[in-house]
Amino acid sequence: MTAKSLLTALLPLVSDLSRELPEGERYRRLLEAMRALLPCDAAALLRIDGEWLVPLAVDGLSTDTLGRRFKISEHPRFEALLSSPGPTRFAADSELPDPYDGLVDGLHDHLEVHDCMGCPLFIDERPWGLLTLDALDPQSFEPIELDALQAFASLAAATVNAAERIERLANRAEHEHQRAEVYRQASGQQNREMIGQSKAHKRLVEEIDLVGGSDLTVLITGETGVGKELVAQAIHASSARADKPIISLNCAALPDTLVESELFGHVRGAFTGATSDRRGKFELANGGTLFLDEVGELSLTVQAKLLRVLQSGQLQRLGSDKEHQVDVRLIAATNRDLAEEVRSGRYRADFYHRLSVYPLLVPALRERGRDVLLLSGYFLEQNRSRMGLNSLRLNSDAQAALLAYDWPGNVRELEHLIGRSALKALGQCKERPKILSLSAADLDLPNGSVEVLAQPPTVAAPALVSGDLREATDSYQRHLISACLERHHNNWASAARELGLDRANLGRMAKRLGMK
Asked: Phi, psi at residue 247, to the nearest 5°?
C-alpha cells in the first residue's frame, strides 16, 4: 500500500470533519472509506455501551446486524481487540468464534469468516469502540495492512469525536448530563433500548424528545405489542425527572378495589387483609413518573378519584382521612379508542381530556418497513446468547417473509416468533451447528397475511354434547372464550372487548365455567 493510496482514502474524511452531516451518514462514509483503503467483504463500527458493543454502522453485513447487541464477555474476538492498544489480525485458523459468521450480506451458504482484523478506537484516551474488517478469503489481509488500519483508526476517532461534540452541543439545553447519567446507570438493561431507523420510528423519537423535556401528561396509544411501555420509559428518561423513579401499574391486571389500593395506598384495617399501612403507586412515584398501562380498563369510579388527584395533587389512602401531597408526572397508555369510549358513555370526558394533554401514537410494526430486520437482529442475538450458539441468522427467504408479514401482534409477536423458531430449528438439528440459519419454513408465517387478517375470525363449533341446554351452552361459551383468548395471547381485557363484555364480567363467567 502506497502513501498516495492512503492519502486518497483519508482525504474525504478530513473534508467531512468540517461538514454538518447526520450521524448515520458520517459513519457510513467512514466505513466506505475504510473499505476503499482495505478491501474486504464486510466492515463495522461498534460503540462500547457498558458490557455491550452496539453496531452504529455496517457495510457488507446483513441488515439485522444493526439491531444486535453483542455482549463482550460472550465474544472472545471482541475481547481480544478491546484489550489490545492497536490493530489485531486473527490467524485464518483461529479457533475463536467470529461474531459475524453467517452474517456477511448476500450469501446463502453457511460460509464462515476466515480473515479478520480490527482496531480499538480511543476518545480522550478512553476506549470508545471498535472498527472491524472481515473477509471470506483467508489471505485477504496482509500484516503490512495493520499499519494502514492504525492510521485510519486515528482519523476515525477524530470523526467519531466530531460527531459526538456536535450531538452534545445540540442537546446541551436538554439536560444532557442528567440523561447520560441515567442511561449509564441503566446500561445493563438492554430491554429499554428503542431500535429502528424508519421514518415512522424517527418521528416517534423526535416526539419523545420534544415532550420529554416538558411535564405534560402523555397518552400513548397504539396497537397491542407495539412497545408503549418502552415509549413511556424513554419519555421519563429524557425528562427532568429522570433521576427519580418511574412506577408502573397495569390497570387491567387488578379488580377495581385492588386498583384503588395500588394507586392510593391503604391504612391498617381498611379492608380484610390490610394488616399494615401501605403506600400506593402515587406516593412511590413522588417526584418522578407514574405510568398507567391499559388505562382504558379503569372503571368510572376509579376515573373520578384519579381525576381529583391529578387536578389537586392530593390523595387519601383507603381507610384514611389524612391528605397526602404528591408531585407526579402521569404517562398513560391504551390500545382503546378512548374518544369513542367517551361518546358511548363508557369513559369520563373530563378524565379523558386530562389524560390526553399530549397524545402520542406509536406506529404499528407493519408501518416501520425494514425496522423489522433490525429488531429481528436484536432478538436473534438475545436467543443466540441464551442457546449458546456461535451464530444465529436469517436466510434471505426468512428476511423476505418477515418483511411481507402484516404483524398483527407487532414487536411482541416478532420477539416470540424469533425465540420459538430458533428453538424449533435447533431441535431439528442432529448435531449442534456452528451457524444456525432460520428459513421461512422455520418461521412458519401464514402466506398472504393481509388477506388472512382481513377475514373476520371464525370459531369452529364445538362437538355436540349430550345433556341439557345449560350444559351445551356452557360448553360453547368455554370454546368461544378459549379461542378468543388464544387470538389475543391471553390478554383478558382485549378478549373482553372482542366479546362485547366488561372485563370483570368475563372473569366471573370464566370462573363459573371452570376456566380460572
From this structure: -110, 130
CA dihedral 257, 258, 260, 262 (to 10 degrees): 170
For the record, the C-alpha cell of 185 comes out as 446507570
- C-alpha–C-alpha distance, residues 22 and 28, integer Å: 10
Query: What pLDDT digit, counting tens, does each position of 427-451 carry?
Result: 999 888 889 999 999 998 876 443 3
Q: Give the closest residue to 289 by CA, choosing from 345, 220, 353, 349.
A: 220
Kindly report the CATH class assigned to 199-361: alpha beta
Q: Where are the alpha helices (DSSP H) in 172-227?
A: 176-185, 199-212
Confidence grade of residue 422 (pLDDT, cut at 50, 70, 90): very high
Listed residue (197, 194, 221, 224) closest to 209, CA to CA: 194
Domain extent listing, the chain? 3-172, 199-361, 368-453, 458-512
- Quick one: how far is CA 43 from the chain centroid? 25
Residues sharing a CB contact under 8 Å with residue 280, sequence separation 6 or more, in sequence order: 261, 262, 263, 264, 265, 266, 315, 317
pTM, entire model: 0.75
Residue type, 155: L
Q: Is the pLDDT of residue 121 over 80?
A: yes
- CATH number of this structure's domain 368-453, picked from the four choices 3.30.365.10, 3.20.80.10, 3.40.1740.10, 1.10.8.60: 1.10.8.60
Q: Does the pLDDT at position 3 exceed 60?
A: no
Alpha carbon separation from 410 to 105, 118, 208, 227 (Å, rounded): 26, 37, 20, 9
CATH architecture type of domain 3-172: 2-Layer Sandwich (3.30)
pLDDT higher at 478 or 212:
212
Residues with Cβ within 8 Å of 74's Cβ and at least 6 positions away in sequence, in order, are 385
Would you state the cell numbers that stand for residue 205, as one nine-digit string? 423519537
| CA 398 from centre of chain | 21
